[in-house]
Amino acid sequence: MFDRTHGETKLWESFIKGETAAFEEVYRRYYSLLYSYGIRMVGDRELVADTIQNLFVKLILNCRNLHYTDNVKAYLLCSFRNKLLDAFQSLRPMEVIEECHEFFPMGEEIINSLFKKDDVDVKNERRLAKAISRLSGRQREILYLYYVKELSHQEISAILGMNPQSSKNLLSRTLARLREFFFSVSTIWIFSILVHCVHVPVRSVWAFHFS
């Protein structure tokens, strides 16, 4: 019998046993996470919503063949990401998805809306925002997963199809890229501005380093 107070592991066990209440709870618990991630990836609300629906239909129909996992969030994000990339690729068959401008976009209109005109450091803040917009889609994606969604490198590696060390290396290279534009600015100052740029929750400042 499914109990809503159960953690991820118990919830997934109930899901793959075909319990309707577990289907409903997984959908309720993770829909917003998948939707916000999808919108960040491609910005197409209809495509994102359709992909989530298709993902859950497939999971429910094949629930008996699914494997046990102790990290449902990472499993769903990985599955959803793959399906969304496939759907996005079908719309742009001649392009490399992660090199598309539309992949994890951060356009001028977003940058301009991040800061008020009377902010003391508005010039530097916008420079950093523009630096973020110059990152590759994959670099913006790892910033989002690590700082916004606060996922571990173990989880990120599962989602992006790499090992944990590669995830750490990607984040390090991404931060180094930002440092190229702001080599004279302190790490803590950049962290405080990045909070605004990508809506980062207050994760440990000391985790945000450039080594």
Automatic annotation (TrEMBL):
GO BP annotations, alphabetical order: DNA-templated transcription initiation
Coiled coil regions in record: none
Transcription keyword on record: yes
Keyword annotations: Membrane, Sigma factor, Transcription, Transcription regulation, Transmembrane, Transmembrane helix
Membrane-spanning segments: 181-202
Span of domain RNA polymerase sigma-70 region: 27-90
Entry's Gene Ontology molecular function annotations: DNA binding; sigma factor activity
Pfam families: Sigma70_r2 (PF04542), Sigma70_r4_2 (PF08281)
InterPro entries for this protein: RNA_pol_sigma-70-like, RNA_pol_sigma-70_dom, RNA_pol_sigma70_r2, RNA_pol_sigma70_r4_t2, RNA_pol_sigma_r2, RNA_pol_sigma_r3/r4-like, WH-like_DNA-bd_sf
Family, similarity comment: Belongs to the sigma-70 factor family. ECF subfamily.
NCBIfam families xref list: sigma70-ECF
The name this protein goes by in its record: RNA polymerase ECF-type sigma factor
Lineage: Bacteria, Pseudomonadati, Bacteroidota, Bacteroidia, Bacteroidales
